[in-house]
TrEMBL record:
GO terms, biological process: rRNA processing
Protein family: Belongs to the UTP23/FCF1 family. UTP23 subfamily.
Organism per entry: Octopus bimaculoides
Principal place of residence: nucleus
Alphabetical list of PANTHER family matching this protein: RRNA-PROCESSING PROTEIN UTP23 HOMOLOG
Biological role stated in the UniProt entry: Involved in rRNA-processing and ribosome biogenesis.
Keyword entries, A-Z: Nucleus, Ribosome biogenesis, rRNA processing
Keyword rRNA processing: yes
InterPro entries, per database record: Fcf1/UTP23 (IPR006984), PIN-like_dom_sf (IPR029060), UTP23_sensor (IPR057776)
GO cellular component terms attached to this protein's record: small-subunit processome
Domain UTP23 sensor motif region intervals: 192-209
Cellular localization per UniProt: Nucleus, Nucleolus
Protein name per Swiss-Prot or TrEMBL: rRNA-processing protein UTP23 homolog
Length: 246
């Protein structure tokens, strides 16, 4: 599963955990349309959903959904065995089966106290159960996808926690006041840098010439005398000079 898709699932599941108290293992309620979509996409429902939700799951269905699958057994022969592999929970319609829309609506009740995650491809069921808060809806569109929480779920989540938010804001204010009392802020002092006198750069200065100091005989005062440079004369020039003097 890709990283962005994984983050999206974690965020949605965290919403239902925090506001509607969903816990693992998740209880997943499946109808025939979801099983048929899984068969067409060659997906193993238990394996795919457990990986997608990143948790253990329990697959449930109702006797009304199985009755609907019986009527479609000739058209879709592999549908009924796959739906019957799920655990059948009592929906209260033993005497006479009702439509899956009404059956699932009764299973979810008003607040989805059993914390069912609904898996269906039926648009009617999805539309009806979006009106009830705290019902996650999963469908197959090439891969398994989960819907964003409905507006009703988001509204009830925010309305139900207004009091707690106000308490948290009050606690934050008290903590900030205590911090200000305990941690007294010291006045900020700007220290101006004293400008130091800068001399010449010693690397850019020329080296001083070395002067030999010779003491004078008369006054004992030291006088400076510069050294004369000695020039070397080659031997053939010396011979020429001697011949000229002769």
């Amino acid at each position: 599963m890709k990283i962005l898709r994984e983050k999206k699932v974690k965020k949605i599941l965290a919403f239902y955990k925090n506001y509607f108290h969903f816990r693992t293992p998740y209880q997943v309620l499946i109808d025939g349309t979801f099983c048929l979509a899984a068969l067409n996409s060659h997906l193993d429902i238990n394996d795919v959903l457990s990986k997608y939700l990143q948790s253990e799951i329990r697959l449930f269905t109702t006797s009304c959904a199985i009755a609907e699958a019986h009527s479609l057994e000739k058209l879709f022969p592999g549908l009924l065995p796959q739906l019957c592999s799920c655990q059948v929970c009592s929906c209260g319609h033993k005497k006479k089966a009702v439509s899956v829309v009404e059956c699932f609506k009764s299973m979810v009740n008003n607040n989805n106290n059993n914390h069912y995650i609904l898996c269906t491809q039926d648009k009617k069921i999805q539309k009806v159960l979006r009106k009830t808060p705290g019902v996650p809806i999963i469908f197959i569109d090439r891969t398994v996808c989960i819907e964003q929480p409905s507006k009703v779920s988001q509204q009830i989540a925010t309305d139900g926690f207004d009091g707690e938010v106000e308490e948290l804001n009050y606690e934050d204010k008290v903590l900030n006041q205590l911090k200000e009392r305990i941690l007294v802020k010291k006045p900020r002092v700007d220290f101006k840098k004293q400008k130091s006198k800068k001399g010449a750069n010693p690397l850019s200065c020329k080296k001083k010439k070395v002067v030999n100091v010779v003491p004078s005989k008369d006054n004992g005062i030291k006088k400076s005398r510069k050294r004369r440079k000695k020039y070397k004369v080659s031997s053939h020039i010396k011979e020429l000079l001697k011949n000229i003097q002769q």
